[in-house]
Amino acid sequence: MSRFHTLTVQDVRQETRDAVSIAFAIPDELKDTFRFTQGQYLTLRREIDGEEIRRSYSICTGTLDNEIRVAVKRVPEGRFSTFANQSLAVGDTLEVMPPQGRFHTSLDPARQGHYLAVAAGSGITPILSIIATTLEVEPRSRFTLLYGNRSTAGTLFRDRLQGLKDRYLERLNLVYIFSREEQEIDLYNGRIDAGKCHALFDRWVDVKGLEAAFLCGPLEMTEQARDALKAHGLAGERIHRELFGTTLPTAGSRPRQATGVGQVDVDQARVEVMIDGRRLAFEMPRDGESILEAGNAHGAELPFSCQAGVCSTCLAKVEEGEVEMYANYALEDYEIEAGLVLSCQCRPVSDTVILNFDH
Ligand code: FES
Hints:
20% of the residues lie in helices and 31% in strands.
């Protein structure tokens, strides 16, 4: 699962002035490996100016589209996104990890559900995949999208959404909210914040009856939309969030070095990682680097991308022992209760810890 594969770029499409989408050719022998679920992402790796850069980008195609394509929006001083937007060409190769991510729910062709998505900017990318797949797989379900942007001009995937609207006229409800373009209905002007969510949910969405809600955008927007949904009666397990945008949080502060008598004896923990069917055990200090860093320093080849607690590429399950996370922008409470952790953000607390990356 965690291995990178060399894939050839099959198509590069300019989606907006500062965003491209990239489709990959998947050889027959890797078709199963790169089969994806709607809402998942790919981690890409490339050496740029002598340095290995890894970035995770969401898949924008539906699972039945017969194409695997990610969208890359250029961010200021973003080395990978600038390279992808300016230099990447058809025929180039990139190192690509198989699809990952839990930003989805299982679909049922017999279901007659109503889904909601709230997206801002490039946060539309996984949402597009989720909408296209859901409406195709569940022919009796409906989808409402609240999509925030500055204006029509920079709205990513507007044509693709319109294509879906033409196809699913009765089942797809698109609501564009612009912060710098005046629309006739006042409710559709401004930013997606707590007040806007409450107003929209009061008037337009039967929140209690939602099958699931998908929120994707900057941290603040996803938190405010989540809280508004909960206040309107939607259970936390039905709310799915993915963080997206130009202002990724910085990694959480790490615990201070412990002091005190006997520290030398108690300062080390024994960590065992399970990955790709292998097991590797090593000793590591409790107060220093993360388990991910320590594991990789010992040759474990654990998967990672952002190393900031955002993307969840480093996801693992605690099989034994106790760990502490410094920062978490990817896991919901019920996932943490189920034992999931971001290994790039955690350190051992107990004497022995076993982390399973094949969970
Ligand atoms: Fe992104 Fe750990 S590598 S959350």
